Amino acid sequence: MGVTEAILLTVITAATPLLIAALGELVVEKAGVLNLGIEGMMAVGAACGFAAATLSGSSLVGVGAAVLAGLALSAVFALLVLGLATNQVASGLALTIMGLGLSGLIGAGFVGTNRDAIPPVYIPGLTDLPGVGRLLFGESPFVYVSLALALGILWFLGRSRAGLTLRSIGENHVSGHALGLPVLRVRLYAILFGGACAGLAGAYLSLVYTPFWSPGMTAGRGWIALALVVFASWKPLRVLFGAYLFGGATVLQLHLQAASIGFPSQALSAFPYVATILALVVMSVGERKATGAPGSLGAPFVPDR
Amino acid sequence: MRHLIKAAGAIAFAAALTGAASAQEKLKVGFIYVGPVGDFGYSYQHNQGRLAVEKALGDKVETTFLENVPEADAERPIEQLARSGHKLIFTTSFGFMEPTLKVAKKYPNVMFEHATGYKRDKNVATYSAKFHEGRYVQGVIAGKMTKTNTIGYVASFPIPEVVSGINAFMLGAQSVNPAVKVKIVWANTWFDPGKEADAAKALLDQGADIITQHTDSPAPLQQAEARGKLAFGQASDMIRFAPKATLTSIVDNWNDYYIARVKAVLDKTWKSEDTWGGFAANMVNMAPYTNMPDDVKKAAMDTQEAIKSGKLNPFKCPVFDQDGKEVPCKGQGALSDEQVLGMAFYVKGIDDKLPK
Amino acid sequence: MRLELVPRRDVPAAARILAPVAALVASILIGGVVIALMGRSPAAALDVYFIQPLTEGWALQEIAVKATPLLLIAIGLSFCFRANLWNIGAEGQFVMGALVGSILPLVTAGTDAGPWVLPAALLMGALGGLLYALIPALLRVAFGVSEILTSLMLVYVADLTLDYLVRGPWRDPKGFNFPQTVNFDAMLPYLAEGGRLHAGLLFGPIAVLVAWFVVQRTLFGFGVRVSGESPKAARFAGFNPDRLVVAAFCISGAMAGLAGIVEVTGQIGQLKPGISVGYGFTAITVAFLGRLHPVGMLFGALVVALTVIGGESAQIALKLPLDLTRTFQGILLMCVLAADALVSYRVRVVTTARA
Prior knowledge:
The complex is a heterotrimer of chains A (305), B (356) and C (355).
Chain A: H1 3-30, H2 38-56, H3 59-83, H4 88-107, H5 133-137, H6 141-159, H7 161-171, H8 173-178, H9 183-209, H10 221-231, H11 236-258, H12 265-287
Chain B: H1 2-22, E1 27-32, H2 42-57, E2 61-66, H3 75-83, E3 88-91, H4 97-106, E4 111-115, E5 124-129, H5 131-145, E6 150-155, H6 160-176, E7 181-186, H7 193-205, E8 210-213, H8 219-226, E9 230-233, E10 246-252, H9 255-266, E11 274-277, E12 284-286, H10 294-309, H11 337-341
Parallel strand pairs in B: 1-2, 1-3, 3-4, 4-5, 5-11, 6-7, 6-8, 8-9, 9-10
Antiparallel strand pairs in B: 10-12
Chain C: E1 2-7, H1 13-37, H2 42-55, H3 57-82, H4 90-101, H5 103-108, H6 117-143, H7 147-167, H8 203-217, H9 219-229, H10 231-236, H11 241-268, H12 279-289, H13 294-318, H14 322-344, E2 345-350
Antiparallel strand pairs in C: 1-2
Helix pairs in contact in C: 1-2, 1-14, 2-3, 2-13, 3-8, 3-9, 3-11, 3-12, 3-13, 4-6, 4-7, 4-11, 4-12, 6-7, 6-11, 8-9, 8-13, 12-13, 13-14
Keywords (chain B): Signal
Domain ABC transporter substrate-binding protein PnrA-like (chain B): 27-309
Pfam families (chain B): Bmp
């Protein structure tokens, strides 16, 4: 395996959890809801995924449990922000606090437990191709799922009727409601989808990326995912680009350090964050238009009958 | 059901009140951890020490811990332990130094033990472990086992403990293999499994065939295992995470020290002093040597024995710094404790740069 | 079946005040059941978590100390949030404030520099936070770059800058090369001997009063409010939206920066890595708990501080795990938010589906 190939593989590994979580949040925000609870839902997903996989001996059960856990937590969030029209920002932050705590309680019994990672895909012949085999045909199943998600969401939002409904609700829930669109129901589905994605991203952390569980293993990835949605101006393919850019910058700085170029490690560690800001500035200068945030983002909706 | 809970609550509440009275004779011992006890690394090992105290001294003691205590906001939790009747308090990270001293002034009858710091007081003792002794042994193993002559080092933050660890590792490796090179990646975190894994991968991709780490999660070991390479575990025996890759782990062992200090308080012989123990004091241990040929195993054991008996000091003079200049030898035939405790230079052969 | 929210008219003030109390009761019930299921005593938990912290002088003082940075940051943030600006980087502005504010105390440490150092340090701290907040503000005004991303990313940059300085150039030369500066001499005085109440606490109530006055009684406050509710109306009324963006961020950054340097000169006494314990993020919760109202945020900060101190007591006295107290903190916050919503709306259960 060549060095370039190895580096690209690492980049993909680092980018995938960000991508999955950010795609989920993108759909939520497109529906006009801001959920800052990604970090918490990811943490619970990671804990539940690892616990279920270890207890059942099946990775698939683990993934399923992680998705359900993310779903359940996002349902609590939905109950608050949709059912009671509470403030979305505060509710999301409360969800993160609760999620980080819950993940610790769930995972406490699994500290120091080892488990084999979910193996990457292997297709005889194709995966063994020199140069690109591993890269294209030997990734973790999660990678293919994340790419499919990106394309699926692109199609859903851009081409499907339901996607159009979701977007118009996110853009202006008052007129959406006036047109008879089921604002709250669509938002509920969007929130649940976002929760499921966050749970899935958590499962990736504890079952593939670093196959064990430990408290705080999300290490702020939920926040990066949130930033990526903004970075992408709410466009699915640009989330993909952003996640790989961020993952790439992270891995690049580690390689620069290993090559001892004699730069302060703090400056190199700051590189992914600065690079993301600069990239967004460049893109914004090129476009010269508004950020593209959904019009009703973050505003609670209470239908007047 | 509700009545049941209420009744149970009332009984337990009453029990707690009466229990408080009888607990007066028990010595209350408090612990402050910087990380979660579930990190399976640094804080986990301190907590093992706490459990060992409970096991050894049974109902003579009652222990309490606070985990994940931020260093910048530690004064209140430490004081809360002192106020709630804890007579001996272990604050187990360097960053707790100033808050520990502040609280200690207010509570002269409470005894404090601060890990890895350098300021003491009448009721504040300090203790630390010579982890660099273990690193030296690792270096010897790595120097003999590497085929590419390149070793990857996943480091956390450039504090003296980490720097002296890197140096001891390098000196150990050079003692058996002068051609060896160490590549260092600063993860700038003690604990972020994903990032540690990526750092290990970057080092492996750049030709390292052995990974050693001074961060707390088993992620780097797992990466070495996945690539069929070798690695060392950190803080606790991590072999279960990488049965084929693990050469050995440095094991922090606070059990004996904690039991001894709690006993000293019970016997009223506790004094403020500084303890800095390594192999000889059993504060640093090596997990079983695995996945290596017998001659390497023997070399490792001999080195460990030599350090333990005092025949070998990892920082025996002369020590040369990165530029090849000899470091002044302030100890007896080796660098002094102060030089090691405040180490801020690299030895010859390391081509990373330390922040100045 | 579904739920329907019906806005209540004329909510009595008493109901608004009682809502958080109801929320406390609700979360105590939820927490009590969980604790009982774990085989511990809910009564003892209640005592340790709420009653002792609210009846003991020491704990009350600690609540005030903990609430101060949260309150200062939240008040600043409320200007951004009112104007619909998502500054989620107060954490970075806090760190930058602490860092810039520490320059003078650092260079004058060990000299007889006189009493001017402290006020100058506080000013520079506020200025440091302000300048750092200007980056996302200007990027937004000039290029339309979203402040959510820039402000958040700059948090990490601020943390790493601090890390670099305290490990490198600003390191205490006598500190065995540990990452920390020397201890500062220019410290905020204590309000009472032997306690931990420092003079920085006074900034809290002052900020509440000033913020209330600015929002309710000044043209600028009016502009911020209007631009949040309807940007078009604000433009009609002659407010320059760009200027409002910059002003809101400046206030927010300055307050976070002030909180940072108050924390350093009031409590910590030196710079070291990780001086912020997530205050900048927690303050977002505080701001919305208090509905962006200065007095509301004062109570919000006190509630959050109480949960931290109560949580620590519960870990000590009852040996409850940290994660349980954290989960409970999340539940409590949710209950407060829900109770607040129930004051504004009546929930109607609609059983027949409507077309």
